[in-house]
Amino acid sequence: MSYKYNAAPSPAFVLDEALLRKNLELIAGVQRDAGVEIILALKGFSMWSVFPFVKRYLSGATASSLNEAKLINEEMGCKAHTYCVAYLPDEFEEIMRYSSHLVFNSVAQYERFRSAVSVHNANSADTPISCGIRCNPEYSEVETELYNPAAPGSRLGEVDAAFATSPNGPAQVLPDGVEGLHFHTLCESTSYDLEKTLAAFEQRFGHLIPKVKWVNMGGGHLMTKQGYDTAHLVRILRRFKEKWGVDVLLEPGSAIAWETGVLVSTVLDIHESRGIKTAITDISFTGHMPDTLEMPYRPRITHVSQNGEVTAATDPHPGNAQGMLYRIGGVSCLSGDYMKEYVFEKELMVGDRIVFEDMIHYTMVKTTTFNGVRHPDICILRETGELEVVKKFGFEDYRNRLS
Ligand SMILES: Cc1ncc(COP(=O)(O)O)c(C=O)c1O
Question: What is the CATH number of the domain that holds 345?
């Protein structure tokens, strides 16, 4: 059988090394042409076995917790740009050891920790930690509220009014020692969305930009998606840099691992209830692809039958009334752990493979072992064509999560 993920165990996430390289080359090109730093957001992609490979192309990585910051130090060999919605006091010393940059979600958080940073910087031989504050431009093109950091009343970042009430000085100033501004309001967005966001950011925070050394424009820049206008992205980033004379950083997660691999599953049973057929598989939507239920979105599916035939399943529409309808069922007991009917060209049989496309970003980092469901193995399809299983999950992994 020629299907390229055929040698993978099931269930398994399979990262395609050649596709990852293609993304990294594109991103490195933007980084070079725009003169900005692009760093990996671990929250979107934490498959650390490929961090040394990623580090060949990108400037570093951003962490949203102590664990992510430590992983960046250990597996990427560099300090992290760290942003936490709130820092835990008993973790802060350690976070400082692992970080080159710290972004605070509020002026109050900065005020709470700034003396600790000053003491750290005075006693450390390393380059001093550079501090920034997350701003909320209150503008976003993201329509799903779950993914919209600029929704009214958002807890993510300070609105412009927060700086007017800073206890630290006259109206409209940054607290002493702040060297950077950060915003993040995009999600799978275009460069044109960024352009509009920059206009809102400049309108609300333009008076603060000349006071800082760097601006971090967060994630959500889906530059590796087909059709993304990278030349336009480069133009607006260069223009921003030239206008304000600041260093610019982007911290995408999805863009790094976009369309770089799959989740392979196997049909375990065909269940029928009053005419509705469900192909029960060895994966769980809630356990392994929670965004398909939360967002919600429909994953693209490929059917690989046991005789090697490869066909795409499609959404039902008048043009494909001839196919066979199956729901795809997860193996957990959650009633909603399934995807509504897809149309298959061929009958599904126990043992056939159902391959979920584009399952590397945000899936692996969000998995759970709910119901004790078997966690998919993690594999890499090397550029040589060899399939390497980099991690197999078993009872110990399940047991070690709790006590
Ligand atoms: C602060 C911050 N930076 C970066 C990212 C990465 O975004 P994306 O994976 O959409 O590029 C996120 C995602 O939620 C985020 O919250």
Answer: 2.40.37.10
